[in-house]
């Protein structure tokens, strides 16, 4: 049963579209993002494989009968399907035999390394990635500015955001976890801590079957969090662990970070590599990010007050929450999000590139003091791109006013944005 306080998710349209032509749809993403709750909206039979009793029952059925394991009124949801990986091949065969469309939904919070499936299911089973909620989904953005409209060349209206610095600090610390939204503000901030502890105490071992030192994995996550929204290399982060008193070899470090990526906790931002009219070399390093900034907050033991006391750190975390929201919105437009950096020193925080080649540049600035520098960077990038002019250029802020500058660049508070 869907809770009465369910908030609509942007990803729902993507699920509905894929169910029209896919035999099965897999919804992947980190724990606690609401995958199961959303998938249940499209399911007539719900199998929760994270329940130990149900898991054991279906592990037994997997050795006996495909028909039994797939019995029930369709669409059938297998929640955390990777707990009984044989289900994948049974579903693929059933889709092949019956030419089903929209017959199955699967959710998964882990890309386990030791899962063996005989066929990828390409063309029959299609995946969707679900991130934590954006501010528009959680009801904390007014949504007066639409990225889709801007890509269509529509102008924005002057508007005001009521989102304060204190609000943004709270949203960063709270994160986009649906289960926290109905809680009092103080309790909301406990959710990311519990999520992080659950991942460390259990999931990091199960994802690849390798037992890990829990103290060392905590320290690694803290080191990663200290470098959020930066171009720090893996070597830099590895060496940074020395400050934590860690002594692990680099191969172990890679094993640990791979586990965090497979759990959808680390989600680095890749570099954009367009054709440019410049002798500068485009740098290809990933920008370090988490799927949600609240995980980094929990790892570092930060709070709303601590963030507001250090505006340099606050700026990095503001960029992280902007990255999360832009990724959610861009996905609904069939777009990818990147950053840009070249050897001339030109940097642009976020690039949205749609499948049809349209693109937009976004600089993230917490306040007004760096807006002119941000505008200069955006104009430089637009001028050196060889083939396509940007659909729009934007400075994403936490200022009050939403407007278009004389140079055509939009200044948009995060609390006014939607897909």
What features would you describe in this structure?
- With 419 residues, the chain is an alpha/beta fold.
- It has helices at residues 12-21, 35-40, 52-61, 66-69, 86-98, 147-151, 165-174, 185-188, 191-206, 214-226, 234-240, 250-262, 293-300, 304-309, 311-332, 371-384, and strands spanning 24-28, 45-48, 76-79, 104-108, 125-129, 145-146, 159-160, 335-341, 347-354, 359-364, 392-397, 401-404, 410-413, 417-418.
- It has a seven-stranded mixed β-sheet with strand order 7-12-13-11-10-9-8.
Question: Can you give keywords for this protein?
Answer:
419 residues; Rossmann fold
Spell out the helices and strands N to C: HEHEHHEHEEEHEHHHHHHHHHEEEHEEEE
Q: If helices are DSSP runs of H or I spanning 4 or more residues, what is the number of helices?
A: 16
The number of distinct structural domains comes to 2
| Low-confidence regions | none
Helical percentage: 25-40%
* Sheet with most strands: 7 strands, mixed
The total count of strands amounts to 14
Structural class: alpha/beta
Going across the biggest sheet, name each strand in turn: 7-12-13-11-10-9-8
Radius of gyration: 22 Å
Mean pLDDT: 92
How many angstroms does the end-to-end distance come to? 28 Å
Shape: globular
Strand content bin: 15-25%
């Amino acid at each position: 049963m869907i809770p009465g306080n369910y908030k609509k998710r942007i990803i729902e349209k993507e699920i509905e579209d894929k169910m029209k032509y896919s035999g099965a749809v897999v919804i992947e993403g980190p724990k606690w993002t609401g995958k199961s709750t959303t998938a249940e909206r499209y399911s007539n039979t719900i199998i929760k494989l994270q329940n130990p009793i149900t898991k054991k029952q279906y592990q037994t059925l997997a050795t006996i009968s495909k028909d039994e394991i797939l019995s029930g009124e369709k669409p059938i949801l297998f929640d955390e399907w990777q707990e009984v990986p044989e289900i994948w091949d049974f579903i693929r065969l059933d889709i092949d035999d019956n030419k089903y469309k929209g017959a199955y939904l699967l959710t998964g919070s882990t890309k386990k390394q030791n899962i063996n499936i005989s066929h990828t299911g390409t063309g029959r089973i299609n995946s969707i990635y679900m991130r934590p909620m954006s501010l528009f989904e959680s009801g904390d953005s007014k949504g007066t500015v639409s990225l889709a409209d801007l890509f269509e060349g529509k102008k924005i209206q002057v508007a005001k955001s009521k989102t304060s610095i204190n609000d943004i600090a709270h949203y960063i610390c709270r994160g986009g976890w649906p289960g926290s939204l109905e809680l009092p503000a103080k309790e909301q901030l406990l959710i990311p801590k519990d999520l992080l502890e659950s991942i460390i105490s259990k999931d990091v071992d199960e994802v690849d079957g390798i037992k890990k030192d829990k103290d060392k994995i905590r320290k690694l996550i803290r080191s990663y969090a200290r470098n959020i929204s930066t171009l720090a290399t893996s070597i830099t982060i590895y060496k940074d662990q020395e400050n934590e008193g860690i002594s692990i070899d680099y191969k172990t470090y890679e094993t640990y970070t791979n586990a965090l990526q497979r759990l959808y906790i680390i989600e680095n931002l890749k570099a954009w590599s367009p054709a440019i009219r410049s002798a500068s070399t485009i740098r290809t390093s990933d920008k370090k990010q988490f799927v949600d900034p609240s995980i980094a907050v929990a790892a570092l033991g930060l709070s709303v007050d601590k963030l507001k006391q250090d505006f340099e750190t606050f700026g990095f975390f503001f960029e992280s929450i902007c990255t999360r929201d832009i990724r959610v919105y861009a996905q609904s437009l069939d777009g990818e999000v990147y950053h840009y950096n070249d050897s001339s020193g030109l940097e642009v925080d976020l690039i949205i590139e749609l499948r049809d080649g349209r693109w937009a540049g976004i600089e993230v600035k917490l306040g007004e003091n760096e807006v002119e520098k941000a505008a200069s960077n955006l104009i430089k990038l637009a001028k050196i791109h060889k083939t396509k002019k940007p659909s729009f250029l934007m400075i994403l802020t936490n200022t009050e006013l939403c407007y278009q500058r004389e140079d055509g660049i939009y200044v948009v508070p995060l609390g006014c944005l939607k897909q």
